[in-house]
Write a structure and sequence with these properties.
By secondary structure, this protein is α/β, with parallel strands linked by helices. It contains 20 helices and 17 strands. It folds into 3 domains: about 240 residues, 2-enoyl-CoA Hydratase, Chain A, domain 1 (Alpha-Beta Complex), CATH 3.90.226.10; about 200 residues, 2-enoyl-CoA Hydratase, Chain A, domain 1, CATH 3.90.226; about 35 residues, no CATH class.
Length: about 525
């Protein structure tokens, strides 16, 4: 055998060694937990045969605590690039079979390399996280490695989409990289995220809590809002990433992908003409509206279990990728509060950063009152949503279905926040407040002065009708040009698509600045 063939044979053997990570026993342990290995996850994520791996032969450089005897090719993370539906993405997958996927200086270097490459070519970065945290044996070098990754997350923000999957432990400083990315997707039952674990919580606070209770997928999806999506297992998480990519552009200089559809642009939905209840306080389901007007009834909801009074997510209209923001009358009557305001603001800013038009469906009676909201900074959180809409330069189409009162009317993409096309259904009520509240303010003395209860009620009813006639309709706002048109509900899909077609060439820039000072 020639020397060249010998070297080729050696290369093949080293590749095989690298591909088994921490060894067959460690791989069996990963499978026993219901988890896949790093390379199995990458193969599920990317188009078949498209993965090109980088730095397969990297080893750590630590000699403390006997680490020189624990070296593995690739050192705990698999990195490279490939395609999803034919589109280039960069990916790193932490390998829990190698020293628990713990982060070393060289492991961080590998992750930073793919992030740098993604920025150069303008392609999304997807991180599959499954790590025990910093490699303690490396001390400050491991911390420096985390900081290098975080710096790249920050610089890449708003330039290329960043998606994090949490498929195992993610604790301590490790949580900040996913927190800095655009979307977090957690696997139910096998993943968790927290800054300080149950043992520290017990020591410091005397509080008994499990890993799942402290930082499991359901906690972060419903209580903290850290997780945008959850999946029952690795496969479902990865399928969600592939689905999400169908709505996102490669970078902030490109348009989102066009997805052809056979769904007619002028499809009418007659039931929408009757969906609004006669009783203004009776709820209806905004999901029915959304599912009936988007292409093929396909809606990818973001933050589904968090702040349910506001719905956000992605859909297509006539093949165009769009972000939808909608009040949900079935949850807390659709009021805005601190959590829903933050949720909406974050989503609007993402869409604006990546050239995704925003469709807003409005039915909002106001902001949630009370000391809990005021002490929790609802003013600041509401300002975030207002700021996000006012700052956004992408096409913005707003449809008011029913209530749109006071400050909540303003923050839901009103005309004065540079809404491009603002439509209303005939059932829309656009005013400072509802008729009951307005009458109590405007005619309080007159009503109070009347001693006869029957007469008192008669006056109140008459004044309420007077107010309703003036303001509880869309025509008063339309009179001033704040509403561009009052539309028939069944034609909502058609009008939105026509508006988006009209706005496809929109050009709008904000004043030059180093960066804004968003109320935080």
């Amino acid at each position: 055998m020639s020397q060249q063939l010998e070297k080729v044979k050696e290369l093949i053997a080293l590749r095989e060694q690298a591909r088994i990570g921490g060894g067959e026993k460690a791989i069996e342990g990963q499978h026993a937990k219901g988890k896949f290995t790093a390379r199995e996850r990458i193969n599920m994520l990317l188009d078949e045969g498209s993965f090109e791996e980088f730095d397969m032969f990297v080893k750590h450089r630590c000699y403390n605590f006997g680490m020189e005897k624990k070296t593995f090719l690739g050192d705990g993370v698999v990195t490279g690039c490939g395609t999803i539906a034919g589109r280039l993405v960069y990916v790193f997958a932490q390998d829990f079979t190698v020293i628990g996927g713990s982060l070393s200086e060289t492991l961080a270097m590998k992750i930073c390399k793919v992030m740098d490459q993604a920025m150069k070519v303008g392609a999304p970065v997807i991180g599959l996280n499954d790590s025990g945290g910093a490699r303690i044996q490396e001390g400050v070098n491991a911390l420096a490695g985390y900081a290098e990754i975080f710096q790249r997350n920050i610089l890449a923000s708003g330039v290329v989409p960043q998606i994090s999957a949490i498929l195992g432990p993610c604790a301590g400083g490790a949580v900040y990289s996913p927190a800095l990315t655009d979307f977090n997707i957690m696997a139910e039952g096998t993943s968790y995220m927290f800054l300080t674990g149950p043992a520290v919580v017990k020591t410091v606070l005397g509080e008994d809590v499990t890993q799942e209770q402290l930082g499991g997928a359901s906690v972060h999806a419903s209580k903290s809002g850290v997780a945008h999506f959850t999946g029952k297992n690795d496969e479902e998480v990865i399928a969600t990433i592939r689905n999400l990519m169908a709505y996102l552009p490669q970078n902030n200089m490109e348009e989102p992908p066009y997805v052809p559809t056979n769904d007619p642009i002028d499809r009418k939905e007659d039931f929408l003409n009757e969906i609004i209840p006669d009783n203004a306080n009776e709820p209806y389901d905004m999901y029915e509206v959304i599912n009936s007007i988007v292409d093929d009834g396909q809606f990818l909801e973001v933050h589904k279990d968090y702040a349910k009074n506001l719905i956000v997510g992605f859909a297509h209209f006539g093949g165009t990728s769009v972000g939808i923001v909608a009040n949900q009358p079935k949850a807390m009557a659709g009021v805005l509060d601190s959590n829903s305001s933050r949720k909406g603001a974050r989503f609007v800013r993402f869409c604006d950063a990546f050239n995704i038009p925003i469709v807003t469906l409005v039915d909002v009676p106001g902001f949630l009152p009370g000391t809990q909201q005021e002490y929790g900074g609802v003013i600041l959180h509401g300002a975030k949503l207002l700021y996000a809409y006012g700052e956004a330069t992408v096409p913005k189409v707003t449809v008011t279905l029913r209530k749109s009162y006071g400050g909540s009317h303003i923050v839901m993409s009103c005309k004065q926040l540079r809404g491009d096309m603002n439509y209303a259904w005939p059932t829309a009520n656009i005013a400072v407040m509802g008729a009951d509240g307005a009458v109590n303010v405007l005619y309080a003395k007159e009503i109070k002065a009347e001693e006869d209860p029957a007469k008192k009620a008669e006056i109140a009813a008459a004044k309420k009708k007077e107010y309703d006639d003036l303001f509880s309709n869309p025509y008063n706002a339309a009179k001033y040009g704040y509403i561009d048109d009052v539309i028939e509900p069944r034609n909502t899909r058609f009008r939105i698509i026509r508006a988006l077609e009209q706005l496809a060439t929109k050009k709008l820039t904000n004043p030059a600045k180093k960066h804004d000072n968003l109320p935080l």
